[in-house]
Amino acid sequence: MIGGFTPDDFAIDTAAGTVTCPAGHTVPLAAPGGRYQQRRATFTGLCAACPLRERCTTAKTGRVLTIRPHHHLQAAARHQAATDPRLARRLPPLAPHGRTRRRLARRPRQPPPALPRHRRQRPLAPPPRQFRRKGAGPARKGGSYGDRRGS
Is residue 68 part of a domain? Predict the structure, then answer.
């Protein structure tokens, strides 16, 4: 959500196993589970009457925050990239949904080159006249080639 709260705006304490939202609501972290040992904090009942809901979530049931095992390292790297002027020059600014502007500005893909002449498909045509059976053809009442019943 553009202009909303990011995971960095939440106070995450992995040692105590709690997460506090910007409005001050505190919820426990679930036990690590799944393939990547992620932990979840669900603010299910607390978001309904929260004054900051519009900036936090659009989900009917409330915000769900997923914490990965190396969250503290990722948060430190994001903080350093935002504050260090040397890194700010190297990294292109982000556009909505996490894509960089360079990627969005790229030209669309060109269509594949035409196939070589020996690999092109030709449209289907009726067989040449010398290979047709006598009296058979699409104009016949009976239907398809070789069908002798419908004369």
Answer: yes
